[in-house]
């Protein structure tokens, strides 16, 4: 017994060390399309096993493990999606986040097996290690693969995009451009919530058709447009409000500062910059997801890392911004706002 009255217990440590068991089961379920097969309602275990091509030996344990993880329900021998799975793990739904999990299963799963090497060498363990194009570079060279990646990004962006649209004071501004916009989930949410706002998104030119299609589906093509370019190759487009959403963590500190300086130049006086990330808490103790995302940047990139709000606000002040504040969004996500 410790002085605090807490008895040390190995179970927590074992559960942490073996938590990849559950992670792998969920990733396999996404890959197999379990949740999509159950989108229309409950199915018996045998029928579901046959549909997704499982061997009889492991099928029951696999499906019941998903029940224990609260992503499936089971009643009278029939399996169905939990409410969360029905909303976020059915392929084709706008809020589908399974695309990111599919990429985690096909790419990150193997790379994270080399975390020890990354920690010892400081070098990436992704395709970059062998001098090959990484997953993002390869996707931009393949239109079909790019669409899949962009849709995955939309699914994970939507909750925060809605929160930004609700919590940022867009009533004070007229124009908004999202830098690194993907399909345009954030501009669409902002424009839908604030009918006076015009603007759009900036990204590499191959993203343009997907952006136009997504914006068109939401009937916002008259107010939102696409700017194509490389944000390191030239100036950023000008607007009253700019946003970097999950952009800065991809780069080393010099590149981060370069992008913040470009944003400062592009904004008018009183203009605002939004930095949206899975920010690490300032004491670096609580936001485990943010810390693990930073380790993912170690594995995936040559210099990227996640950061605290205090870190970013300091960089923003160094860039010239006069006022900053931090607002929590959804889950582990937050935004920092800086005013020129």
From TrEMBL:
GO molecular function: O-methyltransferase activity; protein dimerization activity
Active site, UniProt feature: 249
Listed InterPro entries: COMT-like, COMT_C, COMT_dimerisation, SAM-dependent_MTases_sf, WH-like_DNA-bd_sf, WH_DNA-bd_sf
Biological process terms in GO annotation: methylation
S-adenosyl-L-methionine among keywords: yes
Annotated O-methyltransferase dimerisation domain residues: 16-90
SUPFAM superfamilies in UniProt: S-adenosyl-L-methionine-dependent methyltransferases, Winged helix' DNA-binding domain
Alphabetized Gene3D superfamilies for the sequence: Vaccinia Virus protein VP39, Winged helix-like DNA-binding domain superfamily/Winged helix DNA-binding domain
Domain O-methyltransferase C-terminal: 112-322
Keywords, sorted A to Z: Methyltransferase, S-adenosyl-L-methionine, Transferase
A Pfam family assignment: Dimerisation
The protein's name: Methyltransferase
């Amino acid at each position: 017994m410790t002085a605090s009255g807490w008895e040390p217990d190995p179970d927590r440590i074992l559960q942490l060390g073996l938590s990849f068991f559950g992670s792998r089961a969920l990733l396999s379920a996404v890959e197999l399309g379990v949740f999509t097969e159950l989108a229309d309602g409950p199915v018996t275990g045998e029928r579901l096993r046959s549909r997704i091509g499982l061997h009889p030996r492991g099928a029951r344990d696999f499906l019941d493990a998903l029940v224990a993880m609260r992503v499936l329900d089971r009643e009278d021998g029939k399996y169905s999606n939990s409410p969360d799975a029905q909303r976020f793990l059915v392929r084709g739904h706008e809020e589908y986040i399974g695309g990111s999990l599919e990429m985690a299963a096909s790419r990150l799963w193997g790379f994270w097996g080399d975390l020890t090497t990354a920690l010892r060498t400081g070098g990436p363990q992704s395709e970059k290690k062998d001098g090959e194009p990484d997953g993002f570079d390869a996707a931009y060279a393949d239109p079909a693969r790019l669409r899949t990646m962009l849709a995955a990004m939309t699914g994970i962006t939507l909750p925060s995009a809605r929160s930004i649209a609700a919590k940022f004071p867009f009533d004070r501004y007229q124009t908004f451009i999202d830098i690194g916009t993907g399909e345009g989930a954030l501009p669409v949410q902002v424009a839908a919530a604030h009918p006076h706002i015009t603007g759009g998104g900036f990204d590499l030119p191959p993203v343009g058709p997907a952006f136009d299609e997504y914006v068109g589906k939401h009937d916002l093509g008259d107010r939102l447009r696409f700017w194509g370019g490389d944000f390191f190759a030239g100036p950023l487009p000008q607007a009253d409000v700019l946003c970097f959403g999950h952009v800065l963590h991809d780069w080393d500190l010099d590149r981060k500062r370069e992008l913040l300086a470009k944003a400062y130049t592009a904004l008018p006086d009183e203009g605002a910059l939004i930095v949206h990330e899975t920010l690490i808490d300032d004491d670096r103790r609580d936001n485990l997801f943010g810390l693990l995302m930073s380790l993912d940047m170690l594995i995936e990139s040559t210099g990227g890392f996640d950061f605290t709000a205090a870190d970013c606000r300091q960089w923003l002040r160094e860039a010239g911004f006069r006022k900053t504040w931090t607002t929590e969004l959804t889950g582990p996500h937050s935004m920092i706002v800086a005013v020129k």
